[in-house]
Design brief:
alpha/beta, TIM Barrel, Chondroitinase Ac, Chain A, domain 3, 2 domains, eight-stranded parallel beta sheet, six-stranded antiparallel beta sheet, 18 helices, Glyco_hydro_42_N, GH, DUF5597, glycosidase, hydrolase
């Protein structure tokens, strides 16, 4: 029987971020999100639990839908959820519940039928179309209290029930409040109530926050607010203060969405104070785009192409300030540059969690950047239940991460002690799209490059951890590390010791493997962490060994010679 005295899952401050604490210990989420509606059926989940375990996942993200738990207003049914929680617990998995309440992907399709049908009690948002026409949107309007009150009651009931059935076990470790909130199809709600609010004075707390916190605002928000600084107005309607633009519309929606979600989140947190967050559908068409898809397919360009008012970087500060019951705002990363997104959502030292991302090799390689460079508390590819463990790239990545999770968590408590990296496939032209990663640790600079082979270089990924002085831990495959002393007096930098490490599966401690030298260092030039099947390019001597444990420790040294030594 689990002890009821154990603290519930919570976030704990570190030097420049936070760590998730589960059962009293720091926890690294090696997560995966199910297809949208998979967790509405415990019977279906019984067919996939073991598959998730075999993929080396430790945390499953899945929905709890408003339409399922409150099909009749005021009558809650958690029987299916209870079976799901028991199924996860039986398989040693944790859960992050995704509350599909008023909003899922910018619309309201998971609301109960009594919400959908009663447009007078639960009015819809209206989209402004050409010629002054208004179109009824498939989403409730946030400028009416009835739907907010109903959502708040339902979410409170959910958290209250989870506490009753799971507090002693901590199967459920976090909850997502709504999903990809915002308005699609227009930059703001054009309904009469929304128009009334838009013409009213901008709330004083918002003006004060933007004015007093200007120096710490995200650069993307500052860029949109330059007209605000130019106008110099501290009161008036939204357009009087911020000017007439889609960005003003987006700011208006962001403030009111944040207030809406805050009320829901705060009520739930009173019932059971688990970590809460909301996720963000990003603008896929911008200076950080990483895709070749059309705006229609990707969802980006202008507010309304992506959900206007959601927590994108140019309104992130609004969400952080006016939805304080959320512990962080989390980016979904599909078609944006991964590293840039990670950096944006570490704004003001909030913890990084990636609840949705690509599930292919391209996406899997990038999680090392999140864990190694941005102290992520977790990552989560989407649609995991329709992949098999034997072909899922995350099986390999998560397997290695699981074996050294305690080492990574310790590095996260020491800011600047680690760096993550990845190397993608060469382009058909032969061009390498992945430049070396260069960083400085103490008195040494390191260049992390694609692994040497005589034939075609393969993709790679991993992280480097600075242990102490001249000692480093190398984790991953398909790369090599070249060390150089930063001392201007140094005449030579070399490898003192390079040792393969074996991870004890029970304790996570590192034991000694092979002592690496010679070909494994290209005769002392660099430390190679090879791929599992290096391409020898027809060369008759197999000078690059295949990867084995994918963990190694290196100690480097530097010489400083006087002129008389030559």
């Amino acid at each position: 029987m689990a002890s009821e005295t154990k603290s519930i899952p919570h976030l704990e401050k570190t030097a420049n971020s936070q760590q998730l604490i589960v059962n009293g210990k720091p926890f690294l989420i090696l997560g995966a999100e199910l297809q949208n509606s998979s967790m509405t059926s415990a019977a279906y989940m019984d067919t996939v639990w073991q598959k998730l375990v075999d993929t080396n996942i430790n945390t499953v993200l899945g929905c709890v839908t408003w339409e399922d738990i409150e099909a009749t207003e005021g009558h809650f049914d958690f029987s299916e959820l209870d079976k799901v929680i028991l199924g996860a617990r039986k398989h040693g998995l944790h859960l992050v519940l995704l509350w599909f309440g008023s909003f899922k992907n910018g619309i309201s399709t998971y609301t109960p039928s009594w919400i959908k049908k009663d447009v007078k009690r639960f009015p819809r948002a209206h989209l402004r179309k050409a010629g002054g026409l208004l179109q009824t949107a498939d989403v409730v309007s946030i400028f009416h209290e009835e739907v907010l009150n109903a959502d708040t009651k339902a979410f409170s009931a959910l958290l209250r029930h989870v506490k009753e059935v799971d507090e002693a076990h901590s199967t459920v470790i976090m909850v997502q409040v709504e999903n990809e909130t915002g308005l699609l199809g227009d930059s703001r709600d054009g309904s009469s109530n929304a128009n009334k609010r838009f013409s009213e004075s901008v709330p004083a707390p918002l003006i004060k926050h933007l004015s007093t916190k200007w120096d710490t605002l995200h650069r993307d928000l500052k860029r949109n607010l330059q007209v605000f600084k130019a106008l110099g107005k501290s009161s008036g309607s939204w357009e009087a203060v911020f000017g007439k633009s889609q960005q003003t519309d987006e700011l208006f929606m962001a403030y009111h969405y944040a207030i809406y979600v805050e009320i829901v989140a705060a009520a739930g947190k009173k019932e059971y104070a688990l970590p809460l967050y909301t996720n963000v559908w990003q603008n896929y068409v911008g200076d950080d785009g990483d895709n070749a898809f059309t705006v229609v397919a990707g969802g980006g360009g202008a507010p309304g192409d992506y959900p206007s008012g959601g927590g994108v970087s140019n309104v992130l500060d609004i969400w952080l300030a006016f939805a304080p019951s959320l512990d962080f705002i989390a980016p979904d990363i599909y078609l944006n540059d991964y590293s840039t997104s990670c950096a944006k959502y570490r704004h003001l030292n909030q913890p990084l969690f990636i609840p949705e991302q690509r599930r292919d090799d391209y996406g899997a390689r990038r999680i090392w950047k999140a864990f190694g460079s941005y102290q992520a508390i977790g990552t989560s590819p989407f649609g995991i239940d329709t992949l098999e463990p034997t072909t899922n790239p995350f099986t390999k990545h998560y397997g290695l991460l699981a074996s050294i999770k305690d080492i990574i968590l310790e590095a996260h408590r020491n800011p600047g002690s680690s760096i993550g990296f990845f190397f993608d496939e060469l382009l058909p032209s032969g061009h390498d799209p992945s430049p070396p990663t260069v960083a400085q640790f103490g008195s040494f600079s390191v260049s992390i490059q694609r692994s040497f082979v005589f034939g075609k270089p393969a993709p790679g990924a991993g992280m480097l951890i600075h242990l102490s002085d001249a000692k480093f831990l190398l984790i991953g495959w398909g790369f090599q590390a070249v060390f150089t002393s930063t001392s201007p007096k140094s005449t030579f930098t070399g490898i003192l010791r390079f040792e393969e490490k074996i991870v004890d599966p029970e304790t996570g401690k590192l034991g000694k493997g092979r002592s690496l030298n010679g070909d494994e260092t290209r005769s002392g030039k660099f430390c190679i962490m090879p791929n599992e099947e290096p391409d020898y390019g027809g060369f008759p001597i197999c000078v690059t060994i295949p990867a084995r444990t994918m963990v190694a420790e290196v100690e480097v040294y530097s010489l400083e010679e006087e002129s008389g030594d030559f």
